[in-house]
Amino acid sequence: MSALGIFSQLAALLIALLLAPLLSGWVNQCRHWLQNKSAPGVLQPYRQLHKLFHKESLMAEHASSLYRVAPYLIFGCMLLACAIIPTLSTDLPLSPAADAIALVGLFALARVFISLAAMDIGTAFGTLGARREMLVGFLAEPALLMVLFCASMITRSTSLTAIVETLAHRELMIYPSLLLAGVAFTMVSLAENARVPVDNPDTHLELTMIHEAMILEYSARHLALLEWAASLKLFAYSCIGLALFFPWGIAEAQAPLALLLALPVLILKLALGGFALALIETASAKMRIFRVPEFLGTAFLLAVIGLLVNVLLGAG
Description:
Blueprint: H1 3-34, H2 44-53, H3 65-83, H4 100-120, H5 124-155, H6 160-168, H7 176-192, H8 211-214, H9 220-245, H10 256-283, H11 292-313
Helix pairs in contact: 1-3, 1-9, 1-10, 2-9, 3-4, 3-9, 4-5, 5-6, 5-7, 5-11, 7-9, 7-11, 9-10
């Protein structure tokens, strides 16, 4: 474990903590611009977190210890997920301990905790949101695994750092399997991050909301941690997409100069990706909850077809 590797790991964690709320603010601002609405400031998520951390926390009368601990566990899962994704460099000491399958497991663990916490206090909205969240996760996680397996078969490794190092050194060409996997990954990302057309992060309509229904009873620092964790999840999925489909610009091990250049490249790619996300949300309409299984089933089918194409063609 080199000193540069430890620095790269700490830098990845710090960048995730700082840039995640900024990415959420940028996406919200772009979406309002595209809809000809008055856009909030790009720093609004930071102001919201600051306000929530300075408020007094109120708990439901029958809340158990799980309900109190869940925000910290969810935040920790999302932060650990960001730590094993190569954002600035492939020289990450935590990367050998967790591959792409473990990454999906972290997302699943966070989902279990937030669903259990939502059902813990026994409110109708929390239970409704938890059931819908588990439905989305039950369909989205296999599709995400198929996307990761598709990239793993090209690089012969399930390690995200190995995938980035292999794909970044290959000739610039279009892989049919990765093209199908990219469409599937986009669909999964929209569902997993509660974005339109699966969910609307701005709505509080009881019959349609998923993520917001599960955190209605939280307040103050617990709500701040959950909102921050949601931003970290969006950041993590964005970085997974960049690592799989646009790996260029990520520094390699023992390359300090490239590490300095990786940060502006990352910010540029996240800005373009955030604008693309806002464009997709603006061009889409919220679908009925009963259509979500069809939507995610299509994503799973596309990922499986990409996997089969990779097997049949041999080179993706």
